[in-house]
Every structure is written in C-alpha cells, then in structure tokens.
Amino acid sequence: MEAARDTMIEQQVRTWNVFDDRVLDVMRQVHREVFAPGYGELAHMDAPIPLPHGQTMLPAKLHGRILQSLAVDSNDMVLEVGTGSGYLSACLSRLAARVRSLEIIPELAALAKTNLLAVAANNVAVELADALQLQEQSAYDAIAVTGSLPIYDERFQQALRIGGRMFIVVGQAPVMEAWKVTRTGEREWQHESLFETIIDPLINAPRPSTFVF
Questions:
Q1: How do residues 138-162 score in pLDDT, each as one tens digit?
Q2: Is 49 exposed, middle or buried (0-12, 13-18, 19+ CB in 10 A)?
Q3: Which of 96, 112, 120, 144 is an S-S bond match for 78, by CB 3.0 to 4.6 Å?
Q4: Predicted structure pTM score
C-alpha cells in the first residue's frame, strides 16, 4: 500500500501541478484505502472510486489541487460540502484547527464517521444536512465544495470570512471550471479560474431551465 500511495503522489498528484509539501505529506499520511474499503491498491488509481448511492470519491489529483488551492493553516475553521467517505475531511483535519463537513446521504455520513474515527480525525464534525440550505455568514476560513454547481450560488462565498478561500466547480458538462474564490472585503470577492474538470453536481443543485419548442 505504501508503494501504491507513493506512486499515486508522484505520478498523479505531483504531475497535476501539486507542489505544496504540506499537501503531499498529508496525502502520504492519510491512507486512502481506509476510505475505499474493498478496493485495496485500486483505491490509489487515477479514477473516481465508486461509493454507495451512485456517489464517487474524487481522484487523488483533484483532492491535491483542492488542498493546495485552499492553503489551509493550523488556525483555520474549514467547511466541507459533500463528505463522501471522508477522505478529504481526513486530509483537511491534519491541516486545519476544525473541520465541519456536510453530507446529505445518511449512509455516507455514517460511513465517513466510521472512517474518520479509524484514522483519529477527531477535529472533524460530520453533519447530515443539505448544504444548499446553508445560511451562515462570515463563518469559515476555507470552504471545499466537492460537487459541482450548474448555476453558481453565492451562499457559499457569503460564508467565507474576509481573507477566506473557497474551491468550487461551476458549470455543466462538457464545460466546467474549477474556481478559487477569495473574500477580499465585506462585499468583495475575487474569482480565479484554476482549470477545467468534470465532477457530479451537488444533490439538489439548481439546473438551468430547459427550453422545449
């Protein structure tokens, strides 16, 4: 497993422009196979890993880009939208002070809690909730949204503190963009396009209207 993990980091994550040593070290420390039971070394392959209810764990290279873009430090309060099996939560837990992770599917929330307990990620709180009902303001230093938004929703950027950073994917296949959103003032945000990718939308995320002629 250690060899598979090293290969994943060197051939997938680093080659996808992830050079932050803190991120690479955390991805070495967090055993990905714990969060993909039954897959063994396949948990380190360059592909999404199937999870219950038709969900997937994102590829490791994308997790690396998320972690690098957020630049989380040891004093940060982090929000994760879409816990899945808890892998990214565990990585964030080793970088941040506290992580609040929202998962809409009960079975996945329970699975993530079990997995996080197994790796002693004791500063992560997994909650069963629909993040699209979030109403918080200026509460987080970093936000990771692990499902895409076909239509951008400003509720997540409103939840950032000044100086806070958010990773989010916006658009519909075949054209989706990963953004880094930084709150620079009370009513000011900077949106930076990072790269193109395709990931599944958040459950209940609004879609553009379909016109029928």
A1: 999 999 999 999 999 999 999 999 9
A2: buried
A3: 96
A4: 0.95
